[in-house]
Amino acid sequence: MIDETDKKILNLLQENAKISNADIARKLKMAPSSVFERIKQLESKGIIVGYTTLLNCDKLCCNLIAFLFVKTSEHPGDTTLAKMIAKIPAVQEVHHVAGDDCYLVKIKARDNKALSSLIKMHFGTFDKITSTRTTIVLETIKETSRINIV
Fold first, then answer.
1. pTM for this prediction
2. Residue 57 has pLDDT above 90, yes or no
3. Residues 70, 121: one domain?
4. Strand pairing class (64-72; 91-96)
5. pLDDT in tens, 122-135
6. How many of the other CB atoms lie within 10 Å of CB of 101?
7. Which of 23, 44, 101, 139 stands 20 to 30 A from 124 (CA)?
8. Is 55 inside any structural domain?
9. What is the pLDDT of residues 70-111, one digit of tens each?
């Protein structure tokens, strides 16, 4: 699978995806070419699937976070609706969940009015949605996409 050096490289990339191979090499006391090869291997194995930029929603006026619990009339195993929901730009996450609901959807929107409009214009048009419950986040204590690599 992966060794301790790979884990260190992954942790450094999670801290800063823009870190150069030379900087990683310096921190790990390795040759930059070795770091480059390891990263290419991690990409080819599908362990690294992409690189992204984190944006400050407060500065971009999209600071309302809501979670929608969605019930559907889909047959078990049918994820057609989930794939359609995932295409909505304001939707950040779609999770198929166990329990009373079928999906848990994370949305970021400008404000309550934008959220209401989004729910009506998008979720309200899906025939297979039987009900939704919305929970609005008052304060985010921690939000991360990091994976704890031990």
1. 0.85
2. no
3. yes
4. unpaired
5. 999 999 999 999 99
6. 18
7. 139
8. no
9. 999 998 889 999 999 999 999 999 999 998 999 999 999 999
Question: Are 72 and 17 found together in one domain?
Answer: no
Rounded Cα–Cα distance for residues 112 and 99 (Å)? 27
32 falls within a domain: yes
Residue 37's domain comprises: 4-44
Which has the higher per-residue pLDDT, 23 or 99? 23
Residues 70 and 127 in one domain: yes
Total domains in the fold of the chain: 2
Neighbours of 103 (CB within 10 A): 22
119, part of any domain:
yes
Contact 72, 132 (CB under 8 A): no
CA distance 146 to 59: 22
Asked if 64 and 113 count as a contact pair (C-beta separation under 8 A), the reply is no
What span, in angstroms and rounded, lies between the C-alpha atoms of 65 and 75?
Answer: 29
Q: How far apart are CA 22 and CA 30, in angstroms?
A: 9
